[in-house]
Amino acid sequence: MRPDHDVVIVGAGFGGMGAAIELKRLGIDDIAILEREDDLGGTWHVNHYPGLAVDIASVTYSYSFEPNPYWSRLFAPGVELKQYAEHVADKYDLKRHMEFGTVVRTAEWDDSEQLWRVTTGSGVRTCRYFVTATGFLSQPHTPDFPGIDSFAGTIIHTTAWEDGHEFAGERAAIIGTGATAVQLIPEIAERADELTVFQRTPIWVVPKLDFAIPPGAQKIFARVPFTQRIARMVNTSLLEALMVFGVLHFRQAKPGNRLAALVAKAHLRAQVRDRATRRALTPSYDFGCKRPTFSNTYFRTFNKPNVSLQTSSIERVEPDGIVTADGEKVLVDTLVLATGFNLWDVNFPAFQIIGRDGRDLGKWWRDNRFQAYEGITVPAFPNLLSLNSPYSYSGLSYFTTIEGQMKHMRRLFGELKRRGATTFEVTTDANDRFLAEVTDNLQSSVFYNGNCASARSYYFNQHGEAALLRPNSTLSTLRQMERFPVDAYRYS
Ligand code: NAP
C-alpha cells in the first residue's frame, strides 16, 4: 500500500523544522508537518508574554547552519525568535508542508502494511516514517486549586497571554517563580497597582550579561560569518562548562557548582534590601537541581512598594482573591498562572502512540523505565523518530539536541538507502546498552549526589529518575549521533 506521505512530522517548532530540513537534504520531499497551533514556531509562537526573551545567548540559541547576524541583543527578545522561525521556514521551503490547526490524537503502526496510521481531528493519514517533535514544554500545567472555578476576575496562563490586558489599576497575582515568572514579574510590577507573587519553591537566579548588539557588530557578523562562529564557540563553551562541571560532574567538581550558587547569592544580596525577603528567595536545594535562570531585574522587583512575596501555600481561591494556609486573604483582580508545564504525566508522549504488537509507548515507559536509544528511537516502534524522548535533551541550548538528532537521521536514513530497506527498528540490546550508559553517567550528577529533595524539579520523573537530560557533553552527544553503530538497528 502506498502511504499518503513518506513522512509525517508532528510539530512546526524548531525541532520539527530541523527534522524536515534534514529529510529534504536526504531527498525526501513528501512530508506533512501537522501542527495543532495556527502558526509555526512552537514555543516561540505560543509564548508572547511581556518580557519574553531567550535565556541562552542567541548566537548559540539558533541553528549552527543558519546563523542570524541581526539579533538585536545578546539575549534576543521572543519576537525575534518567532521572526527567525519564519525566516527558516521560508528559506528551507517548509511552509508548503505545514498544516495548522491539525491536532493529532493517536498514531498506530500497521505491521502488515509497514506504515503508520496517524489519526487527527479530521481523519486518518498514513505515512512510512513518523516523527514526533511535540516539545518538552508544550502541555501547560494548570493546578487545580480548590475554588479556582469560582474566581470572578481574569485568569491568564502564561502560554495563553492576552496581549491587550493592561493591568493598570489592578491588583495582580502571579503564581509560580520559574524561568517564565522571572521574566514576567518585573514587567507586571511596572504596570499593576499591586502585585503579589506566590512562591512555592525559590529559583536560583544569576546575573544576565545582556546588551544590545550595535549595528556595526551586526554588519561584521553578516559580512564575515566566521566572527559570529567564534562568538558562538566561545558562548557554547561557557555553557558547556557550566553544564558539565556544575551539573553532570557534580561529584568531582563540587567547587564549580558552589561557585555558581555563590554568584547567585551575591546577586540576591546586591539587589534585595530586606533580609527576610532575601532569605525567602534563597533556594534550599543545590544549584542545577532545577533549571536556573538569568535576570538583572527579578530580585530588585521585590524592593518595590507595590510588590509582595507570599510564601504561605495556597489554601483556596475565592471569587475575589486567594486565601493562604496561614489564613491571610489576598484580593486579586487578575490571576496569572506562571505554573509551567506538565512533562511527565501528559507528555512523553504527547498523544497515544501504539507500536508493534500493540505496545503503548506511554504505558510502556511508565510500567518500565523512561528510555529511548540515543534519545530518539524505541524498540517495537519501527520507523518512529521521537525527538522529545527521555535522555534526549543535550546541553543547555535546545539547538544542540535538534542538530544531534539531525545527524542521527542522516546516518540512519543513509544506511536504509544503502541497504535498499524501508523499515528500521532499534534493537533491544542497543537500547539497553544506551540506558545502562546514561544511568551510569548520571551517578556523578547533581541530581543523584546533590541535595535536590526540595527542588520540585521537572528534570525528575514520577519514578524519581532525572530522565530528561542526556548526561554527557554536547560534543560527545554530537559525535555519538553521527557515529552510532549501524547494527543498533534492524532493517527490512
Ligand atoms: P516551571 O519552571 O515549571 O515553573 C513553574 C512554577 O509554578 C514553579 O515555581 C512552581 O513551583 C509553580 N507551581 C506549579 N504548580 C504550583 C502549585 N500547585 N502551587 C504553587 N506553585 C506552583 O515553568 P516555567 O517557569 O514556565 O519554565 C519552564 C521552562 O521553560 C524553564 O525551565 C526554561 O527551560 C523554559 N523557559 C525558558 C525561557 C527562556 O528564556 N528561554 C523563558 C521561560 C521558560 P514549584 O517549583 O514549587 O513546583
Automatic annotation (TrEMBL):
This is NAD(P)/FAD-dependent oxidoreductase. InterPro entries: FAD-bind_Monooxygenase_sf, FAD/NAD-bd_sf. Transmembrane segments: none annotated. It comes from the Bacteria. PANTHER family: FAD_NAD(P)-BINDING DOMAIN-CONTAINING PROTEIN-RELATED, L-ORNITHINE N(5)-MONOOXYGENASE-RELATED.
